[in-house]
Amino acid sequence: MQRLLFGASSAALVMAAALPASAQTASPGQDTAVDDIIVTAQRREQASQDVGIALNVLSGEDLKEKGVSVVNEIENIAPNVEVDSQFGGGQPQFRIRGIGATQYSANNTSSAGVYVDEVAHPYTITTQGALFDLARIEVLRGPQGTLYGRNTTAGAVNIITNAPTVDYRAGVTAEYGNYDRYMVEGYVSGQIAPGLRGRLAAVTEQGGGWQFSRDTGETLGDRDKSAVRGRLSWDLGPDATADLTASYMVDKSEGLGLRLRGPYAPATPALGPTIPTDTAWGVTGWSLSPALAAVSGRSVGDKPGRDNEGFDANLQVKADLGWADLTSLTAYQTFSRSEYNDWDGTRYQESDVYFYNDLSVVSQELRLASTGEGRWDWLVGVHAADETIDGGFYTQFRAVPTLINTPYTQHVQAAGIFTHNSFAFTDRFRLIAGLRYEYEVRELKTSGTTRAPTRPGPSLAYDNDLSEVSGRLGLEYDLTDSALLYASLARGVKSGGFTTYNATSATPFRPEIVLAYEVGLKSDWFDNRLRLNGALFYYDYTDQQIQGIEYDRISGRLGKITNVPKSKIYGGELELAWTPIDGLTLTQGYGYKDGEYSEFFAINDAATAAANPANGPWDTIIATDRSGEPLQFPKFTYSGSVAYDWALAGWALRAETSYYQRDDIYNASSASVLAGYTVWNGSVTVGPEDADWRVSLFGKNLFSEHYDETRNGFNGSARPTMSPNPPRTWGVRLSYEY
């Protein structure tokens, strides 16, 4: 299949190089008091206010000012978006409008599509090193599938990096902050030869460990990650260009330690005394056993952390055929995951885990799009991907003296054909119609879960097919030249998959399907000084994928991803941007959502455990009707910023403060509420008006709000652990460009 994918791209390259000459220009964005960034959310250049989709967009410069340096911090800029690190690990979990996976294995796709320069990253573990040298980020809310390479139920995050420039440019940014954290980022860009442009960018980030061991006093949390990206853009003729991008990243950062919400007693008194509840915010604990150290390639004294490495390459060819625009996108990704986490947060080695994965993805996409003339704008495309993941999951669980291992190999072949259309009945009234058919085959081979020294048994094969139609039907109406009203009905589909941890069987879980109803308004007022956007949505959710449990007759309680037959989610967003006077910009974003299980009979953990012998076999399963129970997400998020730019005696100054608030989250696993929080950030920047350098003083979590990202009960609900976020951090940034 890989030969076929690369062959299609080569054919497109040859076709583009042979095209006749004709002029081709891009439509510039309109300057307004409130910036309107040109986006490619619908695979064509448009002002963000002209797109009838709930959409947030921030430029690369805005991202720096707001301190967004990893994908987890995207939640600070978009309402009803949350990004968590599952149990303190390095794999981000995206949730948009309440839809998102809760899992820590690397083999299942995300509910939200993540794209870097239009290349789909179906496995979120590969996205940790993407946010440097950026042009912008676009966050789309709602099911996507008629415009993008993969189908998703939650939405999409588009990360667009800076392209090579014709004129010679270079720049460097250096940061230093408390906890001895430092970051250096730089780039060079310009013309290499007539018709050939290049750009090279790199970043490294080190230090920042703010936690400490309650046993040894050692620090934990130092970052140690670096990345480099090269881009080449060359003109194949007056009508065609080819862009080649390659990036490499390595992440050897230490992990996040968990803290104890209650006293922790080990499984047997012989292991040691009870550890009291953690009161200091940065305290944690860890200890790596000789057995887990041996299989993970680590030493007994090593801290929790990761040793990940990734390489991406993609070739994009764009050509004007006269009657349509052709785009070919060929991509190759590899990623190696090696990650050790201590989930009990103590020295007792009762919930220590090690992930090991080698991942590769080859994909090919071809699109034809109309040139924008006439009443009908259309796009048709095909996408194919070939994915392989080898790996597994070692763990030590409470009262189990030996290592538990679940190795597996997964192979995925996916293909989709899609179309997106906009037909203008009048100059103000448009019909939007999109359709997608997707076929996918997932195959998993595993010998199941074994306990040392038991050798793995024969490998068993499982498969999970997907054959689904999705799409979007909508209407757009321009109330005025600066106000757009839209309504849509969309059907989104997310792939099924396999639970690849702690399972004696890997029977698949089903795809989830969302039927989404939405109405929205985008508007600019008072000579474009005030922007007011809003949306309301209702989701009819079928086979929602959640982290649940099952009972195996021999092994007992096991974690497993399962399906909820019916759920519903409803809510809305309201966003405002206002420039009341020149230089002063205020933004506000509020998102509200609510949801519940409409139909769900689930295993009652406590009742099932009580109905069976303590050491098994577990033959009696008791279920509870959980319909009406609230879904596990914050009901509201609220964010905003106040920024002021002014000049004084030849100096340019900027002051900005931003804030983010998240509501409580009901936590079913520990039958408790994870408290909400509010975080304030700020920065002050100064530099000469006639020079190319500037210096900034910035701070995150200015009031040192103590808040937990997740809470879990791996060792029983009476002893849940929590993953804390950092207290106040601050630093100085120096930037220079020429």
Task: Explain what the structure shows.
5% of the residues lie in helices and 56% in strands. 46% of the residues are buried. With 738 residues, the protein is mainly β. The radius of gyration is 26 Å and the shape is globular. The longest helix is centred in the N-terminal third of the chain and has 16 residues, at 2-17. Strand 31 and strand 32 (584-599) form a beta hairpin. The chain has four helices and 43 strands. The strands form eight sheets. It has a 22-stranded antiparallel beta barrel. The chain has one domain: TonB-dependent receptor, beta-barrel domain (Maltoporin, Chain A, Beta Barrel).
Beta-strand segment tally: 43
| Largest sheet composition | 22 strands, antiparallel, barrel
Instruction: From the alpha carbons, calculate the radius of gyration and give it in angstroms.
Output: 26 Å
Helix proportion: under 10%
The end-to-end span amounts to 45 Å
Strand content: over 45%
Shape: globular
Helix/strand class: mainly beta
Number of helices: 4
Q: For the record, what CATH class applies?
A: Mainly Beta
**What is the CATH topology classification name?**
Maltoporin, Chain A
Uncertain regions spanning at least 5 consecutive residues: 1-32
Mean pLDDT across every amino acid position: 87
In CATH, the homologous superfamily goes by the name: TonB-dependent receptor, beta-barrel domain
Name of the CATH architecture:
Beta Barrel
